[in-house]
């Protein structure tokens, strides 16, 4: 789908009764002029957050004395005002084509900062990922006049930032992106969760030191190996609690706990319920399964 070139600005009146995200501008451009240049310290329209995604060609983004050549599939994130510059690459043989969003930091700065910490200032994003698809839709909606009030604008900004943050979380926890030794460690836990697995045993299995195993596993999965093991065990326990009539002690033994009391404590810590409360429903909702981040 062709995206109309141009910049679309929004200056809706603020409602003091509502806390809304504020969309400042959205657009698409094709730059081949070497005079194209923005300096984050000289702009007077801030405070703003800029997300700019390259479709083709190449630009340059400078920040804190670091120079990045921004090519197709790469975005950069800039806070305005701020110590950065971006401009058309002087040696580029084709136009620099990109999409961009400018919005106020209201309500979304924590999302922005979290993504920035984890992905960096110049991350790569697949063209078919949810945030880029949403970016295209927002620019198209802006061009078509469909962002016609502050509520629609706020929803667009918040959804975009949520998808951007979610992308980083799912990337971290996508097994396809994990290093081989982390995959092997996770598979070992998933296959042997009913046994007493020590970190030393797991480290030996994947040929890593205990320290490097914990560091790599945590960086890739978002959980320590022990927390991952607990997550697998509790997940299996929920299946047994709702799918069988086995006693609490028998379920504890089957999923690898040395005693029913230790299992009850671990289950309650993870779910907020005892195994008996989960099984019966009690006065709470009758959960079939609980999901964790």
TrEMBL record:
Annotated HTH araC/xylS-type domain residues: 183-281
Listed Gene3D superfamilies: Homeodomain-like, Regulatory protein AraC
Pfam families per UniProt: AraC_binding, HTH_18
SUPFAM superfamilies in UniProt: Homeodomain-like, Regulatory protein AraC
Family matches, as PROSITE patterns: HTH_ARAC_FAMILY_1, HTH_ARAC_FAMILY_2
Key words, A-Z: Activator, DNA-binding, Transcription, Transcription regulation
Signal sequence bounds: none
Name this polypeptide is given: Helix-turn-helix domain-containing protein
Species annotation: Paenibacillus illinoisensis
């Amino acid at each position: 789908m062709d995206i109309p070139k141009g910049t679309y600005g929004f200056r809706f009146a603020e409602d003091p009764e509502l806390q809304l995200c504020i969309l400042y501008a959205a657009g698409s451009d094709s730059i081949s002029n070497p005079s194209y240049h923005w300096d984050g310290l000289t702009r007077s329209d801030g405070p703003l957050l800029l997300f700019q995604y390259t479709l083709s060609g190449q630009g340059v983004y400078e920040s804190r004395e670091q120079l990045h050549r921004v090519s197709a599939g790469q975005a950069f994130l800039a806070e305005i005002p701020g110590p950065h510059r971006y401009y058309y690459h002087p040696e580029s043989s084709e136009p620099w084509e990109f999409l961009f969003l400018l919005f106020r930091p209201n309500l979304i700065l924590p999302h922005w900062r979290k993504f920035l910490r984890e992905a960096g200032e110049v991350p790569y994003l697949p063209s078919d990922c949810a945030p880029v698809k949403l970016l295209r839709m927002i620019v198209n909606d802006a061009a078509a006049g469909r962002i016609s009030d502050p509520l629609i604008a706020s929803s667009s900004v918040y959804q975009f930032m949520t998808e951007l943050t979610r992308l980083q979380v799912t990337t971290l926890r996508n097994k396809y992106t994990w290093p081989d030794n982390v995959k092997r460690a996770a598979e070992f836990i998933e296959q042997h969760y009913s046994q007493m697995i020590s970190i030393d045993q797991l480290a030996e299995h994947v040929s890593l030191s205990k320290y490097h195993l914990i560091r790599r596993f945590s960086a890739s999965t978002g959980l320590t190996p022990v927390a991952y093991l607990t997550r697998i065990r509790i997940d299996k326990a929920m299946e047994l609690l709702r799918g069988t009539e086995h006693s609490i002690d028998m379920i504890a033994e089957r999923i690898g706990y040395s005693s029913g009391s230790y299992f009850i404590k671990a289950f309650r810590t993870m779910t907020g319920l005892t195994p008996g409360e989960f099984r019966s429903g009690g006065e709470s909702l009758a959960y079939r399964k609980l999901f964790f981040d």
